Queue: 2 jobs
Job 1
Amino acid sequence: MKYAFFLGCTIPARARNYELSARKVAETLGIDLIDVDRFMCCGFPIKAADRHAATLMAAFNLAVAGEKGLDVCSLCSSCASQLAEASHHLSLDDAEKARVNERLLAAGLAYNEAPRVRHFARVLFEEVGAEAIKTHFKKDLGGLRIAVHYGCHYLKPSSIHDRFDDVEDPTSIESLVALTGAKLVDYSGKKRCCGGPVLPVDEKLALSVAKEKLDSLAEAGANALCLVCPFCSVMYDGNQKGIESEFGVSYNLPVLYLTQVLGLAMGLDRKELGLNMNVVKTKELLEGIAE
Amino acid sequence: MGTIDLDKSDSNFLEELADQPEAAMIKACFTCRTCVAGCPISAVNKAFSPARIIRMALLGLKDVVLKSDFLWLCSTCYTCQERCPQGVRITDFMTLLKNMAIREGFAPSGIRAQLKLVTGDGRIYPIDDFDNKKRTKAGLPVLPTSCEDIKKLFQGTNG
């Protein structure tokens, strides 16, 4: 199993804990993630300003991977969605494809057959599979009560993600977490957006959106939240203290990437999984894991 | 939320929208408000309503929509688009309106700055030597600190 590893902008700069844990989990499972120096931003951050420029940037990245004969794997839900959406759009719009190719020529590239785009969690769910993942587990996470946040662009729009999971009743990430022995906590508003995209426009509004979920998680009795997108992590982990002080509430809810949860079950070292870089401290939570 | 002022209607707006695939189905909207019911933003801010934005567009209220603050509150979560019984590509339509607002000069300054940064540096968070030092320390590979390709892609465009 071999993929061009699309890191995007946020992960290498702001979510090194995600990158570290994903690389370790991939190595353990024998997934070959190839670093590609030529990759640039996926285009997602400029879609609101200029969707055609965003498509051009996505097409550039797809063409770079295509030239190497590699499919693309991303840890970020927004990158995966942006790249898959551009690929879907360009397969339907020949005029835009021609415009894109005109620009790509300047970079010595051509957009032809687009490679497949996959989120890392989808690769684990669909390609590696539960049985193979389980054979690498060394620890039982039975002491943890984990709630899952799917986020939006991991699954939506469903038309570009081949409907690999049900957008209205998703199970893919929970089925992976369940393998670790951790207890899954269901809660109201599971499919709700983190509010992250609104952060630069209206901070308080974005924080209120995130607060709704944190309230619901507290009520459901989760002792950790598991997710697969660096933007969602910014909202629930990075901004959790800010939400607590803005609204006079207290959560102290550790937020872990799926790769950190699986890595713990694989018996990987906490530092190797970047758990020391999580904003809400995980020490107390991890004491609940039997040695 | 006040009443809609039809004196501000621009009859050409619908024609302008007619060429755009993202707007193709908006006329099919029968205001069932499924989009509002599932919207994470409407849930915390009643002033935001996807159904109302579609209605305003259909009434030709171009300037009202494009100059509005609420347009930028859409979090692009796609819940409305997934659930619309009439097949309106609501989230994609919001993106189209945001793009039009930028062209008309109405966008928030942060959005414009982001466009300049990304199409200039090729990354939203450019990697510098300090980042690479931290990456090396964490056992992660060093990344390029500049992007030549982005200049080639946007040469001679305003993008």
Job 2
Amino acid sequence: MNKEKLANSLIFSQLRTMWLVLKHTFTKADTVQYPEQKPYLAPRYRGRIVLTRDPSGEERCVACNLCAVACPVDCIALQQVVDDDGRKRADFFRINFSRCILCGFCEEACPTYAIQLTPDVELAEYDRQNLVYEKEHLLINGPGKYPDYSFYQQSGIVIAGKGKGEAEQERPPIDIKGLMP
Amino acid sequence: MMPEMLWKLLEITIIIALLIPMAAMLVWVERRVIGIWQDRHGPNRVGPFGILQSLADLLKILGKEDWIPPFSDRLVFVLAPIIGAICVLMSFAVVPFSPDIGVSDLNIGLLFFLAMASLAVYSVVLAGWASNSKYALLGGMRAAAQTVSYEVFMGLSVMGVVLLTGTFNLREIVLAQSEGWLIQSQFVGFFIFLVAGIAESHRLPFDLPEAETELTAGFHTEYSGLKFALFFLGEYLGVTLISAMSVVLFFGGWLMPEPLSAWLPPLVWFIIKIMCFVMFFILLRTSLPRPRFDQLLKFGWMVMLPLALLNLMVTALLRLTGVL
């Protein structure tokens, strides 16, 4: 009986299995003892959703509804209003975390980096109603990822304090009726 | 006469009062040890090291609805788990725990144990039948076939022991091993007894009657609450019983070689030996896959039965020629 055949024989393979399992008495458990010992969650982990602000402290969200469209479980609801200063904002912004599956599609859909997922997964509540987060619960006081990005400084939309042609990648507007090149 | 009776009753009560919590503790031990072997921790939250896990389980199971399926045969359905637990507990009556502890010194103790092990199959078969559901019935039928096949050579495997010691009394079998444990000459018999014992107690890898992957939970599919707990009590008592019998028949019961025997009391040695076997049972459960049912029966009849007969004949031959 050659070596390979011996290893595959019924009784020897059973004994070998048992020996291999028994050796695990001395290996360390892989368990992370959760409430006392937090597992490492990467910065881009998809956890609780937040709404971020741009570097000047204004809300990034322009209430374009792309996140609500992308959401596969329809847990995002919002309404757009245009403020007097020309900025578009969400009149209300509501995420129902009891439906949210933390897929991150909203973050990918967002054109202004406003909606972002954070590495916080401790969302448990005793009352289901408490899982419905309104805008004031979602808004944070910082830019989150992409700290330097400001949508209104990149786009050509006119708002109070920033006229046409004053965005970062814009040149001053050309007078199309003038004769100069 | 009366004080003696009372003393005996007290002894029985103490043994039962210790055995049942021990069976409950075994559930925790098993989960914990399997956890360690699978690189987990197992239940470690309730009490120190999770030692009160069984108590928590018990409290929870007491709070469960004691449901009897409307399609079942009520009387038999209720009776089946009780039969199971009683049969196993009865077997402990003949187990000699230490030189002066042990309920009964039946002169046919070994046969009594075999009889009770065979009776225990009624619990499983009746549970399967009374549940009136296909999974339970299949599990019960499997249990019947398995027990009938495996108790044949279980009986034969211990006959070598009887041949060498000349008695069916378990206490005398232990005392006959004071010169040397019977495992020295009866290792084949021990192997056969162990395999048959695993099959009798429906433990992995021979847990075909309750094969989760095929039969949901086998014969106890329809059981819940306390009756389910009784089945589990029976199963873990069965594990302890088979371990105890292996120790008594082949590993010298409470006896230990000279220097070791003085260190600890006989009862403690006995329990230590039993725990080694229980650990072995748990190791089997974690590491071995379950065979197909026809393979199980084929293995029993084609391999183990001839082996048991051969072992018996060779033992008898050696006994006659005076080698053993």
